[in-house]
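SAMPLE LOG
Freezer: B-3
Tube label: C17
Construct: single chain, 378 aa
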Amino acid sequence: MIIQAFLRWVETAKASDRARAASALGRAYAAADMNGIDRHAAEMAMTFLLDDPSPKVRLSLVEALADCPAAPRAIMKSLAEDQPEIAFVAIARSPVLTDADLVDIAARGTAETRALIAARKGVSCSVAAALAEIGDEEEVLILLENDRTHLSRRTLTTIVSRLGHVAAIRDQLLLRDDLPGDARQLLAERVGTALAGCGLIQATIGAVRAERVRGEACDAAALAAAAVTPPEELPLMVAHLRESGRLTPAFLMKALCGGAAEFFIAAMVELSGVTQRRVRAILSGGRVHPIRALFESAGLGPDLSAAFAEAVLLWQREARETAGAFASIVASLHDRLRRRSSPSSNAGALAELVENLAFAEKRRLAREYASLAARQAA
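STRUCTURE (predicted):
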């Protein structure tokens, strides 16, 4: 009877009075203090208020129900798709909206709607994935800045792929310890491409040199990422590098000489189809012919397989006997490759690469020596 009287009164009451009544009804429902009023009847009355012509009435209702964990979900979902000032309250605060509700609202809503969903206290993996797929820069940035967001590996990779060129998003991604190795590598490639295409850089050092610097920087970033990537994630990173055309003999030689053993093993597994256990056994066995056979099954020609086999044997010997073996390995390998008679063009290019690696290492050591001398003289 009370609800029936309320509904009759609503038809003639002023908007301000209806708003106060909606607020009182919503608060009483949220507090479970109905004083004998049937809760079903109260829900029917609140549902009736969803069609009130005054937005003030609906705003009062949503503010009363927003934090209630027992609020009727259908009512809250309707309010979440109301006018912006009403929807924002429901989206930002209501705990009864399900992941499916939030995904639907994000798909149908505006950028502001998606930003509110991204800023909620606790965003699930499925909601975050949806926002990563359709959100613009601002929404995704809010998602990354929300420390209560649950982001899966796939979602992080999606964000890198779609928006890795945006500096603010890139900065947030690089701060994350859970950024997958393949995503980190893709991010480095995005940065390199952006820099190489910069008009100022091209005017300063030329387009050809800018592209070469970009390639070298991407290789260095990939190897740095490989060094901190868990072994179980390396196959994904290797697969990404192969698909992007970066798993070249030059890159593999850099990885091998640089001591990225786990990454190199994962690359050989990917390229040759041989099991990881067998690859480890061959590379550690110290026998030239099985090592060369492995490299040739990975697509390296006879000259290249010989050079890689020498590098493996040098690494096995130098790494056991010498601390900081990189300089010794590249110097010895370069000397051996240079003494070869009539090398193929591929082997010649590889010898030039090893020479560049050796010289780059000398420059690094010279910088360290100069820095140490300066500190001692101070």
